[in-house]
Specification:
alpha/beta, 4-stranded mixed sheet, about 475 residues, TIM Barrel, 20 strands, single chain
Length: about 475
């Protein structure tokens, strides 16, 4: 995994942080937050918070006391120990796109299938820049709704040996994820000691945690599996249009969700989640890769560090319908501040297209190329006497060239970044070889990667036990 040692880019002054701090305190104490699950409101009531129906008014100091119980950093184990990850500090972990119901291959856009889900899992396994395939890489519409989560988790467990994200559609689905994870890792005690999944719990913004998400959160928190508690904010729709107002709402929602997690199981790991962008005020459509989302992202990183929490934000986000120049520059507009902020967990790192409606194979490769380049760009420059190459000047002299110098010859294999996607061919050669643009070249690369994919080894007995669980649960669910 990547360790980001570069300085953080911080926008907020101490005075600005104080104003934002007063803002979230007013929301939780004067407006309150809705929790649509009786067990959640009961926990808050027993802790001395004001509760009326589904609304909880929170003492800000109580919230901070609960937040302080969450670990600043923690580990998550993978099936292959070489792929274990550390969450927090300077560490950055990257996972693939999450949630789209559609898939794009070349010029064809179609309903996502289970085969697409498997292929994206295989691609994520193939690229070391990704620490996880993610969770709902795409929504396989050809699989039964009630049981498709079983096949999805099984694919993540068998086609990859990296950590995976759990299902959050319901409490029973979350419990299925936990049970299958127990089988893979050797029991409940093993995964409670070192978590093996990370799951996304979205707030139904503004200021409402719904029952399905809370059902899943309870299951994961009770099993000591970390959750990413994420306000879903599109400024102008789910939050006010100003960035400071969105930041204040984000703090109120995320911190209240984290407080609940600590009431469920004190000390359980959590991640401060952020998904912030804006809508097009002319059409109402969501937009991504905007300057406003980048500013909000940088501020979020600073605020998460202020509260001592690992955080999730960013990704290769775009509103573009195809993997074109817009898709690339909007993805970079989001991914660059993701690195500048020192984000700990980055979802949607590869494959996101069309405002999250589409998982795209070509965009997946373009995003991996971006990740590869940014990892080099954010590796601190090492400066020593050898790097100054004084002897090379003595060898070449005035007006010469350095192509054949000893300094060059000993370093040419790895002195510069070598792209897997970009083309630097001259025009004649590029034309002769088909005049392929970046999207077409990405198409060739992902197909070659799938052709060369090799599944990571898995013990036959564990595979058989997982298959038996999936078959039994599918029957119990009536599929």
């Amino acid at each position: 995994m990547f360790v980001n040692k570069m300085a953080r880019y911080e926008l907020l002054s101490p005075e600005a942080i104080e104003i934002l701090d007063r803002g979230w305190r007013r929301i939780v104490s004067e407006i309150g937050v809705q929790f649509v699950k009786p067990e959640a409101t009961e926990l808050f009531a027993r802790a001395g918070q004001k509760v009326e129906g589904q609304t909880v008014w929170l003492d800000p100091e109580f919230v901070l006391e609960q937040v302080a119980k969450a670990p600043r950093e923690f580990d998550v184990q993978a099936r292959n120990p070489a792929n274990n990850v550390h969450v927090g500090g300077d560490h950055m972990i990257f996972s693939g796109v999450y949630g789209p119901p559609f898939v794009r291959e070349g010029n064809v856009r179609h309903d996502a299938t289970m085969e697409d889900f498997r292929k994206f899992s295989m691609l994520a396994q193939s690229y070391p820049e990704l620490d996880s395939a993610g969770g709902v890489i795409c929504e396989p519409n050809d699989a039964p709704l009630d049981s498709r989560h079983l096949d999805m988790i099984f694919a993540l467990q068998t086609l990859t040996d990296k950590f995976y994200m759990g299902n959050v559609v319901s409490g029973p689905n979350a419990l299925d994820t936990i049970k299958m994870t127990e089988i893979l890792f050797g029991g409940r005690e093993t995964i409670e000691k070192t978590p093996a999944t990370i799951s996304l719990i979205n707030c139904n913004s503004p200021l409402r945690w719904d029952d399905r998400m809370l059902d899943a959160q309870f299951e994961y928190n009770l099993a000591n599996q970390p959750v990413v508690l994420t306000p879903f904010l599109l400024m102008g729709a789910m939050s006010p249009v100003t960035i400071p107002a969105a930041l204040v709402q984000q703090l109120a929602e995320a911190l209240s969700g984290i407080a609940l997690a600590q009431l469920i199981r004190p000390g359980c790991p959590v991640i401060f989640g952020s998904f912030m962008s804006n809508i097009d005020m002319q059409s109402g459509s969501p937009t991504f890769g905007t300057p406003e989302s980048a500013i909000g992202l940088l501020c979020t990183g600073q605020l998460a560090r202020h509260f001592g929490l690992p955080f999730r934000t960013g990704g290769g986000l775009t509103s573009s319908q195809t993997p074109d120049a817009q898709a690339a520059y909007e993805a970079l507009m989001t991914m660059l501040p993701t690195f500048l902020a020192g984000t700990n967990m980055v979802m949607h790192s590869a494959g996101w297209l069309e405002s999250g409606l589409v998982s795209c194979y070509e965009k997946f490769i373009i995003d991996v190329e971006l990740l590869r380049m940014l990892r080099v760009e954010f590796t601190p420059l090492e400066i020593d006497e050898a790097a100054l190459a004084f002897d090379a000047h003595l060898e070449v002299g005035h007006g010469g060239h350095f192509l054949g110098a000893e300094h060059t010859m000993t370093r040419f294999r790895d002195c510069f970044y070598r792209p897997m996607l970009s083309s630097s061919k001259n025009f004649e050669r590029w034309s002769r070889e088909g005049a392929l643009d970046a999207a077409a070249r990405a198409g060739e690369i992902y197909k070659k990667t799938l052709d060369e994919y090799e599944a990571p080894p898995l013990d036959d007995a564990i595979r058989a036990e997982l298959e038996e669980y999936v078959i039994r649960r599918r029957a119990e669910l009536g599929d």
